[in-house]
Design brief:
heterodimer, A: about 240 residues, alpha/beta, six-stranded mixed β-sheet, four-stranded antiparallel β-sheet, 9 helices, 10 strands, about 35% helix, B: about 260 residues, mainly alpha
């Protein structure tokens, strides 16, 4: 892997829990994502998908290997500055107490920027929440809360977006609309995006390439079209982890 | 009744202890009927408690005859013991003993020193040891509540804290809301004590001063001094803890260690 055009590149990244657990969660994971590319991360539960995303937002530290953002080693970057460049959306919205606008403004305010009411309203309009600025974040539905979480991450103008099963906790109708929203945002802003999902169909709809993890190792990495051209039964088995030795 | 049976003060004290212990056993027998069995723990706790307090009484008797500065050594020892007890309540926090020790020494220690310098608490064994021990003991309780509540708040809000970090927040900002909740929870009992003084309870030191012949009004004023001192010491100790604990629960790369 040369990786010269990658916005994000992982080289032989491992993560091992220290004693007493002493468990190897990721082993020698290598891949890259270019600007504007959506990479789906698939694999059975416990394969290391969320662990990998946490390393990329530096919520955890790799125990071996190198992560490069735009060619620069993660370890040379200040964690806070790095996290602003790498937005993360988790399975649950985890909104802060207060209004929707306060949640949206949180990221920029951490580095001394204030957002005007019109700017907040414009961002909320883009995610279909026009007029929600003053709503109490605690009163929103799951789908609305996740949209606010997306807006909150976008307010930092990230270069890379990490999505950790962002639609898995939503009802079917919200799941579809949030998926469409994320797809359009990623395309419009030409963001590099890592999308962890259990849903092979979602990966097929959204991703340009696919990284499949199995027991902490890369089992497959390639273009989504190549991966999706496999027989349907094989895809379902990979998705659920059936038949993985 | 006991006065007639036991003319010696020491024998009467032992008999009083025996009857108090007997009463607690009787109460626990009633408690056991509700399915809560603490009877097995009680004898050891009481034996330990009486051995410790009698030992302190003996040491105080010896100290009262010696140089008064030895009371400072006793208070330093109490602070170490208090830090060791706080550590047990804060098992999830790395290096909790040094955190508790620095906080108690800095908080309770500096408040006591200020009051000794001004002359509010005389540098006398008979006064400094009981008042100092009350301040340290209450400070220890407040700090245990603070750290226990802090751990609970953090482990039940890991998602919110890591969301804040992921947006570029500093550990102080990410933890701020939970530190404030723990701080308030730890100080409310002490504040309530000051508020309810004289109405709900007449604390030990005032009772002791009145029993030993001091004017009840002066004893009441001095009790206010003691409770306010406890409040200041606890507030300062927990404040120091709140700064130290942030560094304990994050790595140098600002990653949350206390995840439940």
């Amino acid at each position: 892997m040369t990786g010269t055009n990658y916005l994000l590149e992982c080289r032989e990244v491992s993560r091992e829990l220290p004693a007493p657990e002493s468990k190897l969660l990721l082993r020698g994971v290598s891949f890259g994502v270019a600007k504007g590319e959506v990479l789906a991360i698939l694999g059975p539960s416990g394969a290391g998908k969320s662990t990998l995303l946490r390393l990329l937002n530096r919520l955890d530290e790799p125990t071996a290997g190198t992560i490069l953002l735009d060619g620069q080693d993660y370890r040379e970057l200040c964690p806070r500055a790095l996290r602003r460049r790498v937005g993360m959306i988790m399975q649950r919205a985890h909104l802060f107490p207060g209004s929707v606008a306060q949640n949206v403004c949180f990221g920029p305010s951490q580095h001394g920027l204030s957002m005007g009411a019109a700017e907040v309203e414009s961002l909320l309009d883009q995610v279909g929440l026009a007029g929600y600025s003053d709503r109490d974040a605690g009163t929103l539905s799951g789908g609305e809360a996740q949209r606010v979480a997306i807006t909150r991450a976008l307010a930092n103008s990230p270069e890379l977006l990490l999505l950790d099963e962002p639609t898995s906790a939503l009802d079917p109708a919200s799941k579809e609309s949030v998926e469409q929203l994320l797809g359009s945002i990623v395309r419009e802003r030409a963001l590099a995006c890592l999308w962890v999902t259990h849903d092979a169909g979602q990966a097929g709809r959204m991703a340009d390439s696919v990284l499949r993890l199995e027991a902490g190792r890369v089992a497959d990495f390639g273009s989504a079209s190549h991966w999706l051209s496999r027989p349907q039964q094989a895809l379902e088995n990979e998705e659920t982890g059936v038949g993985n030795a | 009744m006991l006065e007639h049976l036991f003319p010696s003060q020491l024998a009467r004290g032992a008999a009083e202890c025996f009857f108090a212990a007997l009463l607690s056993f009787a109460v626990l027998l009633l408690v056991r009927r509700r399915g809560v069995d603490l009877l097995a723990e009680l004898p050891l706790a009481q034996l330990r408690g009486i051995a410790q307090i009698v030992a302190v009484g003996a040491i105080l008797t010896w100290m009262l005859r010696g140089p008064q500065w030895t009371s400072l050594l006793v208070l330093a020892g109490m602070m170490l013991a208090a830090a060791s007890i706080v550590r047990r309540r804060a098992k999830g926090i790395p290096r909790a003993f040094t955190l508790a020790w620095f906080s108690i020494a800095g908080g309770a220690g500096s408040v006591l020193v200020a009051l000794i310098v001004v002359g509010v608490i005389p540098l006398k064994v008979a006064m400094l040891v009981p008042v100092g021990s009350m301040v340290i003991a209450q400070t220890m309780n407040m700090q245990s509540i603070f750290l226990d509540r802090f751990q609970g708040e953090v482990t039940s809000h890991v998602g919110e804290i890591e969301s804040a970090l992921a947006l570029g927040a500093s550990p102080d900002v990410a933890l701020g809301r939970y530190l404030r909740a723990a701080y308030k929870a730890s100080l409310i009992p002490s504040l309530d004590n000051v508020r309810s003084l004289g109405i709900v309870w007449i604390p030990g030191i005032m009772a002791g001063m009145v029993l030993s012949g001091a004017s009840p009004v002066y004893a009441a004023l001095y009790q206010f001094v003691v409770l306010t001192t406890i409040f200041s010491a606890a507030a300062l100790t927990c404040l120091i803890s709140s700064y130290l604990v942030t560094k304990r629960v994050f790595t140098a790369q600002e990653q949350l260690l206390l995840r439940g």
